Amino acid sequence: MWKLARASARAAPQALIEGGWYGNDTLWRTVHDLADITRNYGTGGTRRARSRTILTLVDAVVAGEGEGPLKPRPKSCGLLVWGEDPGMVDVTCATLMGFDWRRIPLLSHLCDAQARTFSGFDGHLEFQAPDAQLEAFVQWGGGEFAPPTGWTGHIELASETRP
Fold first, then answer.
1. How far apart are CA 72 and CA 108, in angstroms?
2. pTM (2 decimals)?
3. Considering the domain boundaries, does residue 15 fall inside one?
4. What letters, b where the CB count within 10 A reaches 16 and e where it falls short, cover 129-159?
5. Which one, 10, 58, 98, 113, has the greatest CB density within 10 A?
6. How confident is the model at residue 10 (pLDDT cuts 50, 70, 90)?
7. Is 85 in contact with 117 (CB distance < 8 Å)?
């Protein structure tokens, strides 16, 4: 049996290692649970009377593309994104990178009722940056990030829907 498995592994095309592919429908649940726990539960697992405010900061002065987070290629962006809603921050960054948040389970499930415990994202995204800032973003190549191998061809935004 071992020799058969080894022989078929040699003959297979480049395999996707770990869970880094578009069809993985597991990790988003863990991330959502952790965000809910962080925002709504205290020591010992007791539910807090009031949700914590969590500041989410994305340092994209030099971002990463391709095989991140372990082997990204650096991409100079000169951008900082922050907010008090982790879901909205992630959807904003994915959109600015040229990815369709609706095709990324971690983000598309933010519209589920269960996600209301930690994110107010309702499926609507509107950019309100001053025109000069949005123009600067476009000039550095925003919306042209390479996805990881296992996601290529599955999450890119159509050019007419990019900000």
1. 23
2. 0.79
3. no
4. eeeeeeeebeeeebbebbbbebbeeebbbee
5. 98
6. very low
7. no
pLDDT at position 111, please? 92
Q: What total of structural domains would you count in the chain?
A: 1
Looking at residue 4, its amino acid is: L
C-alpha 130/C-alpha 77 separation (Å) is: 17
Residue 8 lies in a domain: no
Burial of 102 (0-12, 13-18, 19+ CB in 10 A): middle
Angle of CA points 94, 96, 54, to nearest 5°? 60
Q: Which domain holds residue 81?
A: 57-163
pLDDT of residue 25: 84
Residue whose tokens read 């863990």: 30
